Amino acid sequence: MDAFLCESVCLEVGRRAPDKVLVLPPISYGLNLHHIDFPGGRSTSSPTCSSRFCLNITKSVAYHGFSKILIVNGHGSNAPLIDLVARKTRARDAVALLRDPRTSGS
């Protein structure tokens, strides 16, 4: 449900501003060991794996000329990962990387 709600909002923003907004698909995998015992639970091997994957995406978007990137986080426990990716992207690519302060811990 978290990804569905966030994606729905992002798609609507993209629909309203198609010349200004690129909406990428949600990332539905990550470090999720606290849910691994539930049927169908899956998780990446480490926080490093998840953060590198996300960082590669933000770096790729910056490489193609985007100077403002908004990471939309629909799940509070992702806040440390989002903060790490935001800091590393800004440091490497000098882009304005925004995130929702209500779910990012800052």
Task: Give a quick set of tags describing it.
48% helix, mainly alpha, 106 residues, single chain, 8% strand, two-stranded parallel sheet
Unreliable spans: none
Termini distance? 24 Å
**Helical/strand content category:** mainly alpha
Mean pLDDT over the residues = 79
Strand segment count: 2
Can you give a write-up of this model?
It is a single chain. With 106 residues, the protein is mainly α. 48% of the residues lie in helices and 8% in strands. The chain has 4 helices and 2 strands; from the N terminus they run ααβαβα. Strands 1-2 form a two-stranded parallel ribbon. Helix 3 links the parallel strand 1 and strand 2. Helix 2 packs parallel to helix 3. The two termini are 24 Å apart.
What's a concise summary of this model?
By secondary structure, the chain is mostly helical. The protein contains 4 helices and 2 strands, in the order H-H-E-H-E-H.
